[in-house]
Amino acid sequence: MSPGLKLVFEAWPYLLAFVVGVLIPRRQGLFERIAIGVVAALAVLLVMGLWPDKAAAADAPTPKEWPNLLNVIVFLPIFGSISVLFLPRQSPKLLRRFTMLVLGLDFLASLWLLGVPMTSGWHFQYIREWLPTFGIRYHVAVDGVSTWLVLLSTFTTPIAAYVSFGSLKTRTKDLCFSLLLLHGAMLGAFVSLDLFLFYVFWELMLVPMIILIGIWGGVEKIKAAYKFFLYTMAGSVLMLAAILYMVWTHKEIAGFVTFDYLALKNLVLPKTAALLCFGAFLLAFIIKVPMFPLHTWLPDAHVQAPTGGSIILAAVLLKLGTYGYIRFCMGMFAGPAWSAAANLAGLAVGGGVLYGALVAWKQDDVKRLVAYSSVAHMGFVMLGLFAATRAGVEGALLQMVNHGISTGALFLLVGVIYDRRHTREVREFGGLAKVMPVYAALFVLVTMSSIGVPGTNGFVGEFMVIMGAFVSLPLGSHGQLQAVLATTGVILAAVYMLSLVQKMFFGPLSNPKNANLPDLNVRETLALAPLIALIFVLGLFPNVFLDRARDSVASVIEGYQEGRKAYMGMEPGAAAKLRPRKGGNLETGYPEPPKPGGETGKKEPAPTAALDQAPPAGGAR
Amino acid sequence: MHALQKLFPPTEFALLAVILLLPLLGAIVNGVFGKRLGKEAVTTMALFAIGGSFVASLASFWLLASAQSAAHAKGSEEAVRFLWKGWEWVRISGRHDMAQLPLAIDFSYDALSGVMSLVVTGVGFLIHLYSTKYMDKDPSYHRFFAYLNLFIFSMLVLILGNSLPVLFVGWEGVGLCSYLLIGFWFDDEKNAAAGKKAFITNRIGDFGLIVAMALLVYYVGSLDWSGIEGGRSNLLTRVQMWPVGNQVPGTGFLQASMPSVAEALNRPRFVSAASLVGLALFLGCAGKSAQFPLYVWLPDAMAGPTPVSALIHAATMVTAGVYLVCRMAGVFVLSPAVMFTIALVGAGTALLAASIAFVQNDIKKVLAYSTVSQLGYMFLGVGVGAFSAGFFHVLTHAFFKACLFLAAGSVIYAMHKRIHDTDASQDMRNMGGMKKYMPKTFAAFAMAWVAIIGVPGTSGFFSKDEILFKAYTSSVAMPVAGGKIMDPRSGKVALELWGWPSWGPTVLYAMGVLGAVMTAFYMSRLVFGIFWGDFKGWKIVKGWKEPEHDEHHDDHHEHGPIEGPKPKESPWQITVPILILGALSIGAGFLNAHPVHIAPLDHFLEPVFKFANGAKDVAVAGGKGPGVALHPNAHGLMWPLMLPGLLALVAGAGGAFWVYVQQAGGPAKALAEKLPGLHALVYDKWRIDELYEETIIGAVDSLAEFAVVFDRIVVDGIVARVTAFIVAASGTGLRLIQTGHTQAYAAVMVVGVGGLGWFFVAPHAAATVKPDEASGSYQITAAPGLGYQYRWDSDGDGKPDSAEFGSQASLPVNLERGEQKTVVLEVKNAFERVSKKRVTLFRPKADASAGGPGVVQIEQGPDGQLRGVVPGQNKPIELRRPAPPPPGGPGALPVPPGLRMAPQPPGRPNPAEPHQHQPGDVH
Amino acid sequence: MMGQLVQHYVLLSTVIFMIGAVGFLVRRNILVQLMSIELMLNAVNLALVAFNRQHQGNMNGHMFAFFIMAVAAAEAAVGLAILLAFYRLKGSVNSDEAETLKH
Amino acid sequence: MSVGSLFFSVCALVALVGAVSTVAAKNPIRGAVGLLATIVAIAALFLKLAAQFLAAIQLIVYAGAVVVLFVFVIMLLGPDANTGEKSAKVRLSRWGGAVLLTVITGVALFVTRKGFGPLVALGPVRADFGSTEAVGGLVFRNGLVPFEIATALLIVAVVGAIAVARSKPHAKKPRPAGHETRRLFAGPLHPRDAERPLPKESAR
Fold it and tell me: From A502, which residue of chain B is nearest by alpha-carbon distance?
């Protein structure tokens, strides 16, 4: 068979996608058509990549994990942002292209994460001493949970950047710098396993986000930026205090200083201290999520932020709160988390799902409405996490990604109309479906995803969360009530989203200003297309996604249960202690802690030689 | 035949994929490319897709029928089910996360779904054909067919899905298509609002369906049909509905003050899981099938194009609820109370909707209420356990109601050509005498009319008569002996079920007959109004609005016909489908004609309803499983019970003939004038919509308004503003210090440096104690400082150990058990200043470092039983055996034999005593 | 008075330092304030050199003094430049005029 | 009183008087002279402390550069250099300063008497102590990096000083006519001079 023919046989899905992509758009030039075709082919490549060829996968040896991959993923944008500083301010085209190139390369690099079977444990682990005196290391790794958040981030940020370049024409250099730095910081926070490193990234991402809101925002941008900053900061300083307390306690017991999450995870704190530390972490995370009553920064920030900023904020930044809860609260404070779960789940349902939906219903500003719908969606995510069943946590994880996709797409769509009319007031619109049919169709489609119509991604996540909460042991019979109440949130979601759709798109074209609005342009279509595609891929084949997260979720829940057992075993008033570590040195590179009971009182500082041992490359078990 | 069987084995029945994917393909092609493909291509694509699907359905049905007869010949009772497995969708958690349930996108094909898919694709094809003409002039022609094909696809997913979640995909999918099609002409705010109303009302039903799925996962552990049928016996358990959790929150403090109130509040209430599941499922069915209280969306849904009303809101989608009840029959029969509720709600809805249909003038509205009413009949049928009868009514109703709608559409089409006003061309008062102009349409309409009013021999007669007959003779038996669910552990009665009330059959039958009278009356009114009399549409032209009240008003301003086309017969694309459907509504009755003993459908469906009709997976005393109980004299009652039905026909249709043909509507007008209030009330649909608007929607709305205000004033106001105010106030205060003068800052710095200097000049005596109780050696370590020298007084007698200050920074002290000692530390710094500190050491008597089992306190619980409580834990330890009467005097708590007391370690300090000294206390 | 003790130098140094500090605090003339700073730096230098004279093991005191001089020179240059700019802004060298810091 | 003591006493007295006059002088030029006196006295004390190199540097850097810089600036400012502080607040703060000075000097006396153990006379001086070679060797061996940083600091300070002190061309004012070189020397040094007419361009 000739190579050309072979190519056609093997690459027919991509070719088909390309051809369809070229054929679909109406009234476009050849160049735009080809661009759309390429995007379509790439999307198919991504989707095909999600299904490993099972027969081939069985035979193939376990793929090697390049330990530097995460470094590349995290630092490519960060170095990119530094490089942007050296590019000429006068040529925005160059700046934009460079930014898109870096983000695109980052996305391609992150696709490698899909090539590895995400068995439980840590992958692509990389450990490097950073500040050995303080036990601070550069320790990054991913598991099935963070992989998806990394991918979500690398997937949505280019879209957000692409959209931003369409609508923001001022101060391009600053924009590129902020976007890249924000991207790197978010990725860093998702992959770092050292609490200090995590904290650094956690705070680092605030700065570019404030710049994004504060420079390119709306009328009250400064107020919104302040509010965002102050809320987030208030939570995170408490978290820092808790981190320092844990590190200090760990040093008292184990004899050496470390900020490593995997080491601190084994620390069993006395009950009061555990509760306080849990509270501090929880506060930081639920502000970020955000959960009632700390959610009001979100609508303000969303309304004022530019479209690209809103997309990143909704799609990725909020996920840091939920991710933090899975990773740190469930990992390190299983006991307090377990005992508080039922109450917190009530808060998530009452204050998030129902309250958010009700408030969203009454909003006049489209973006504010979508922002409150975020509160409602994130309530579902938190409910799944509090339920701590496999379905619940998997559903929550899926819902995080779903929310990133559908709410990101909604913000993008709102941005489209804002660019045309410079208003977001619902009453300014009406009957838009007449003038912008494609826009209306896509808006309705994304709305369906947002309100969880089966077949789209929104349904699967909500369904799994509800099912997971209903059967949850930690929530008990309250969980069943909460699941039922959360289900009524599904009704309310339909109420507010469909009211919005009706007011915006249906009815007579009442406002003459809307009579000549152009439909979606190529840039907007290109940015939306991957999101729309993923809405269906995740809605119909969520398993390609959940398969990779399953082991990790199972081990998260296992750790949660074990942690709770250790916590319940603490006598009131007992001192902190260390749990025997499971993976031993393999995971952290640290020595075993001294056996409890033997030679208490004489705690030699940790032999520094142990720190010098080469960390395991790759770290997959 | 053999080739087909070989090609499509029962476990890999890929023909289902063909049935499903053809409409989907049509939807995608028409939706994405439709505008460019042109009208012809869209028509071809849509018809090909749905026609191919119909052909595949026919083939499948044939295969199924032959497979079933083969199985029957072998004596197998099992329902034949063809499977086509798609892929694993998600995995959800079983009860308490003990197991994972994979949910697969699987499709199955059995008798029930076979018949249903034939109806959907067959009627769907006819309606598609009809629409090619009806929607001819519409600019969004391709969009219409894309939606319609998508609807067919969703409906097929609904009926072919092998599990509840897959069914749910179709369930919401048809809701979505219904939403899109009702709002198809979205220029009109009213249409869009109707679509939204339909979707949201359906969502309320979907809420029930999700809850039902959650309950099934929790109690049964499966969501696919065979799994639910196999595990349904687990539903016969009790569920505590109240209180949620251990007790009602806040009753803890009531316990002491008002124990009776607390007990009344906390008394647990139980329901059987089967009832819960049944109710939740029925909520879903009520939403989709427009039953009370969720029927309000269906009449509004007539805002959509007429073919949509025929296909979705009459023939197929709205019967999905009945389909689901039939599908889950095995679960429903476990709860007679729920079944009776369904029957009662069905009968009630039938009457309510029929009463509204009496006075409506919009012909589509009349048909819509008629649909609601007929759906009520179906639920009456399935509610009394006559599943095949109810399902048969689905079938016949699909034919005659689709025919009625399409014929009405044909009339509207003709009227619209003259009037060009959507509302006026649907108004019955503008019609009349149409049989002259539209003979074929009239023929089809009349065939459907005789069917729906139940003229003997027509399909409506057989199906309605069967339902009425079963309403009297059939009921649902208790699923367990005596209706008592036993607790397997204690052997006691856990829950007593509610049974079928004795007055039930009579009431249901009476309601059914009354409904039949009403049906005959209002349907005849409709037919007479449209086709008899004189055409009243001459004076109506484009832009005509109905005069406000006074109908006499018109008489004074009588003027002759205005120019315009005459109503004329519709083209063949419209008449052929309605004639076919009319013929079917006459003839389809013989699929299940029990009075004449021809019942192939009943026979065909029998294996499907096996679990509803006494399968023995749940044992009842007497050897029969849960299911339907027939009246002992059922067979003999068949003919007697038919008589009231025939009388109802005669009374209803005859009455309508008298009122509307012979008296030309005079008595009706007179009655309306006599009772204007009642007439207005019924004309306004009993103002149920307004009631909902005021109560439920109003409540949610004000709740939302409250939430907005709360968000602004409390959350953003108190949480954020108050914090901000405190910070700002302290900032304002501190700002007074910030003069901006460099010197002032420098002066403050000098003060600070001075303070630090003073700190260094003054000595500080501080010490830490490291206790070691086991050996009794205590180590006191003094804090270091600038040029510090130390002097110790180790025996506390006031005289230092040495006169000179030295560099000894720590002092070991040995203590006997129980000994207390005071040590004085003196510190001298570089400036020769001296400070003193007294350290008191105490070594406790007993070694408390070895931990024993925790102490358990005994206390009397609220129920009078003794229980143990571990201090610091809330959960009491249940005592296994009841406590013997207290042997000692009052106040002496007995030690129950069931409780092992914690051994008291010798010398362990009693925790009740206030302890004086902890080891290492520094005073 | 005995031979020179390190205390004498330190005392002298302290007093000069304090004169400088008080001058900095009391005077409102930026020129004088800058000169006061020079006084303080000189006082510190003196103390450093005196201590180094007492402990002759190394000459780090000298080295520190050397660097302090360098810094002092830089400080004087920049300080006077700022003074000039300030004068251009306000037309005066009174430090009370420099109060925008509080805003 | 030995010669050494006398030398010390004289130098200390000069330094103190100079310091006080620096701070107390109404006219800054007198303050500058007082500062000069203090600096020279301290340089002398450096000599006494066997820090010959530092004494030289002290004279060169402080007396030669810094004080001269001050004097330049004072001259540049002219009469504006004297702020004439007269308010009650100023007087009060002066009294406060005097009291503070007295108190802290008392404390310092106390500390120096008590805080350093027995009073020990300074011993003999090592042979090469304080010489240029010794300090140079130290600076270029142990203190090379700080030295380089100090040089960088000085450069930055010079550039910064120029940047800060230079009068900025505001808002495109019409440039005063005249030859470049001429303007460099005869142009306005200060904004307030800009209004003054340039000296007439005399014939060459």
Answer: B192
